[in-house]
Design brief:
It is an enzyme of class 2 (transferase). With 373 residues, the chain is of the alpha+beta class. Among the domains are: 138 residues, no CATH class; 112 residues, Histidine kinase-like ATPase, C-terminal domain (Heat Shock Protein 90, 2-Layer Sandwich), CATH 3.30.565.10. 64% of the residues lie in helices and 9% in strands. It has 13 helices and five strands. A five-stranded mixed sheet has the order 1-2-3-5-4, with helices on one face. The longest helix has 50 residues. It starts with a helix and ends with a strand.
């Protein structure tokens, strides 16, 4: 457990990106302020070194060691702290005396505070121990500074507890929403597959009456195929019962397809569907992509006009939804809609492109392989 915590603190990849998410719209101003703060102390520390020693070129290393970690702070506070540790020791070795190195100490607190505020208790404890030991070993006269490190860590960790709890709750909600969306996709695909399997059963059962001259062995083969298809439908219905949430009524209406895409268009929108002969599952996916894209346009660009184009292109179904710039976003989106679209398209081996347009609007494009119908 201890070694795992040390590994996570010192060596393991870190992709949390907690600082950008926590600061929101204040991310860039806060980052600029931190860079200015680090730049000032990098200059102060470098000047102190030059005054203390001859200009032998090491001042450049001191400047970069002081400023460099802050460039990573917006990417990952933990990575910034890792870079700051050897840099801190380098500056302490090059600069003799507590007074000469005092200015360099002021660059460490923001990095350490970011780690203490956003990471787990184990990582905070490990970083605290390592930071305290580093200060004590690099500058024995700075014992009072080392004494305050655990106190600062404890205070900041407690203050950040609520933020960590909110982030964990948000991650759990995102995971739950993703699972619910996948279950919904599975239920819809069940309806499509069940329809095809029912057709297999009907054709197998009616084969002896439709095809003259079938021998006994062929009739038995058709009967076995029909029985297997019927069992598959039963198994899928059991699976659907597991996927359906408590109290959710079974879907009675047929799943929408490509022919119903024009019904999704809002007043003022354009919808052009140049194809109607596609596999049922592909048509359902195209319908859901258009539905989600228009919903996002209504939510994030109220008053905008949208254009829907659906056509075949090189063995693929090309679904393109664009909308013009609109009014201020109403917010409320969780991002799960885009994830759901990508997963639906990926089921068929297709691709989804989502990007802004030059006129301030938005474009959603799905390319879905048609395969053999």
């Amino acid at each position: 457990m201890v070694f795992r915590t040390l590994y996570r603190t010192v060596l393991a990849p870190d992709h949390t990106r907690v600082l950008p998410r926590a600061l929101g719209r204040w991310r860039l101003p806060a980052f600029a302020a931190l860079i200015i703060y680090a730049f000032v102390w990098a200059v102060v520390t470098s000047v102190a070194y030059v005054r203390q020693s001859d200009s032998d070129g090491w001042w450049v290393a001191i400047f970069l060691a002081t400023l460099g970690p802050y460039a990573l702070l917006i990417r990952s506070p933990l990575l910034a702290w890792r870079l700051a540790v050897p840099g801190f020791y380098l500056v302490s070795v090059l600069m003799d005396g507590e007074g000469a190195a005092a200015s360099q100490y002021w660059t460490a607190p923001p990095l350490f505070v970011a780690v203490a505020a956003f990471y787990s208790r184990g990582i905070v404890i490990a970083a605290t121990v390592l930071s305290t030991a580093l200060i004590a070993l690099s500058e024995p006269q700075a014992a009072d500074m080392a004494f305050f490190v655990p106190i600062i860590a404890a205070v900041v960790y407690l203050l950040g507890a609520r933020g960590r709890a909110e982030r964990e709750l948000e991650e759990e909600r995102d995971a739950k929403a993703a699972l619910e969306e996948r279950a919904r996709i599975a239920r819809e695909m069940h309806d499509v597959v069940a329809h095809h399997m029912s057709m297999v059963v009907v054709r197998c059962e009616t084969a002896p009456y439709r095809i003259k001259g079938l021998n006994e062995e062929a009739e038995r083969e058709f009967a076995e195929v029909g029985d297997a298809a019927r069992e598959a439908i039963t198994d899928m219905q059991r699976l659907l019962g597991v996927l359906r949430t408590n109290g959710e009524a079974p879907q009675r209406e047929p799943q929408p397809g490509i022919s119903r895409i024009p019904e999704l268009a809002r007043p003022g929108d354009e919808a052009e569907v140049d194809v109607d002969d596609v596999p049922e599952a592909v048509g359902l996916t195209a319908y859901r992509v258009v539905q989600e894209a228009l919903t996002n346009a209504t939510r994030h660009a109220p008053g905008s006009r949208a254009s829907v184009r659906v056509h075949k292109s090189g063995g693929q179904l090309d679904v393109v939804v664009t909308n013009t710039a609109g009014g201020p976003s109403r917010g409320g989106g969780s991002g799960q809609g885009l994830i759901g679209m990508r997963e639906r398209v990926a089921v068929h081996g297709g691709t989804l492109t989502v990007k802004s347009t030059e006129d301030g609007g938005f474009l959603v494009r799905a390319r879905i392989p048609l395969g053999d119908k």
